[in-house]
Each structure stands twice: as structure tokens, then as C-alpha cells.
């Protein structure tokens, strides 16, 4: 199931526990987004296409990697590439920045290396703070 929560006029937070939890900006959240999973595990929103004004806009992904882990058997080296592919299929061609938040001591080093090598920014948020990653994401979004 995918749910959309408006954070600001051009940002929606999407969560799909079978693939990734991401925030994609800009995204037209006036229409529901129906999830599709392709055979290679790429999350593909249906009926989402960039409006001309936003096609070249910068896109930021804000990922709570602690609550939405890299799925077992998923090649972490392909996650950033898959996100870029989905955006390109939706006619978003602007720059892409991916931020992942969570307790990095709980993320296997092989996954950390794979994500870092593909441009994903890993942000350590110590365990034990209720909703710590969510709060850090919101603070960073506002900066």
C-alpha cells in the first residue's frame, strides 16, 4: 500500500514497505498514486508524469532507512539507479539527491558501501530517540 502525505505544496511523502519509503519533490499530489512493481523490483508510480514546469526541477528523496529497510535480496547498488529510472519514466529529468536516515550501526557495511558509492547520502540518527529519523528528515527538509 502506498500512502501520500502532503508535507508542503510540492512535496509528498510516499511509503511502500515492499520497495522504498521516499519523499519525491515536486509531485502532483492532487491525484492518487497507484503503485506498480515491475519484474525487476523497480517502484513505478502509475499515472504520474511531470508537468512541463517541473520536468527539470531538482528532486530530493528523503528515506527513513530504519523503518523502510533495503529489502533482503535487493541489490543496494541499484536503488539510486532505480529511483532515477522511475523519475525519468515520469519525465523528471532534473538533478536527484537521495538522503537516507537511520542508525548506521544497524545497517550492514556492505549496504552502506553500496549506497554511498551510488551517491546516497547516509545520515546517522542514533537509535533510542522516538521518531528520531522522521524528526531529522523534517528538520533537514526545512533547511
From TrEMBL:
> GO molecular function terms here?
RNA nuclease activity
Which CDD domains does its entry note? PIN_limkain_b1_N_like
One cellular component term (GO) for this entry is:
peroxisome
Domain NYN: start-end pairs: 58-142
Question: Looking at the record's lineage, which domain of life comes first?
Answer: Eukaryota
Matching entries from Pfam families are given as: NYN
What InterPro entries does the annotation carry?
Answer: Marf1, NYN
Query: In Gene Ontology terms, what is a biological process of this protein?
Result: regulation of gene expression
The transmembrane segments are: none
Give the protein name, as stated in the record. Answer: NYN domain-containing protein
The species this protein belongs to is: Thlaspi arvense (Field penny-cress)
